[in-house]
Amino acid sequence: MKQPTIIVVGIGPGNELDMTLAVREVLQQADVVIGYKYYFQFVTPYLRHGATCIDTGMKKEKDRAEQAFEAIHDGAMCVVVISSGDAGIYGMTPLLWEMKKDRGEDIQLMSLPGVSAFQKAASLLGAPIGHDFCVISMSDLMTPWQKIETRIVAAATADFVTAVYNPKSKGRYWQLYRLKELFLKHGRDPQTPVGYVRQAGREDQEVLTTTLQDFDPEDIDMFTVVIIGNSQSYLWNKQMITPRGYYRESADANAKNKGQGIMIESFRTIDAELSNGDIPLDHKWALLHAIHTTADFEMEDLLYTDQGAVATLHKELVTTGRVKHIVTDVTMAASGIRKGALSRLGITVHCYLNDPRVATMAEEKGITRTQAGIRLATEEYPDALYVFGNAPTALMELCDIIRKQGVLPAGIIAAPVGFVHVQESKHMIKPFTHIPKVIVEGRKGGSNLAATLVNAVLSLEDAELLRPGRDL
User: Which domains does the chain have, with CATH numbers?
Assistant: First the structure.
């Protein structure tokens, strides 16, 4: 080298195969090598004969930086400071630059990148950091815990893939528990993949995957890197994958995946903002759909479900497939039910509003067309799921038919909207305790709301994963 130089190098996570050629070459040129004593076992084979080695214990970073400058002042031309992983990531490089500035040193300072521990861990886990990610250290030696916690919340809510450094030590046993708590509290799916690698690249390397819900901080030690996936991450064949978005069967599939991703994020936001999240899962699933459709958190007070009603209807329509027909009061309610789900399950939706028989019956009997439609429907599909999003008179007609004729629908979703007879129509169906019911109480409702409640019933199996929009 033409002038005295300090070179800070990242030696990788601890396997000689992960050390770059540039770092090996510099090590062979070094007059003085300074570093934490544990790391010298990885670099000794590459040092030239006669090189001076200065090793120190842990927490002596500042001393090592000062020794590097002093070595140059003592006549060394090439001083190499070693740091594990990449020296610029929680390593020695920032400290040496700060010291150079504060001391007013005119010594040339360079750095060579290395393979960081999270990169090595990611390669062993599969492809977990294929999209936007961040790295957070749990060490509060130089960063106040409250600042760390703020960063954890930001990472969780922003849906970053998150690598966790310094996850645990003898004195820091609870921080990783808190991180898990915050990720779950701020909307991260309990089924989010989590991978962790102990002693990455070394002889006693361990590679494991689990979910955020099942992740046990007791399995982690100070030599472990933890990687938490985002909302798109998944586990396949014990590998953790976060898609970047290149691979799509078609542009339509890409659009659907984007739509589903937005819906997932919306549901998690709603779930985090519920005033009472401690409610039965099937009711919550219907509630999340209702609020997502209306952006109205009053649905927490308005949405009524019989105990287990959503789960019961899901069983009848999906699990056993006993019910194959859905009847709606108006065409708009029918059009909002996901066609992909209907096709997948072999369910047919019927709306009699435009049936030629309806107009004739309505005129002859002096009733509304929706009332006439319900009369025809109960004759042809008495055990269907009946869905109301517009017409209270149609709901009242069904109540009358149930009482007088003993018709037994598979269930009733009642969300008529308006000011006349709307609330009364909803009160009228509550006494039918033998029929599972989902009701939007009060004046509010609508065809879009009725349809989304049907979609909630059809997709209840996705509630455990909080992944709505499969048939979007």
Answer: 5-115 (3.40.1010.10), 118-241 (3.30.950.10), 251-462 (3.40.50.10230)
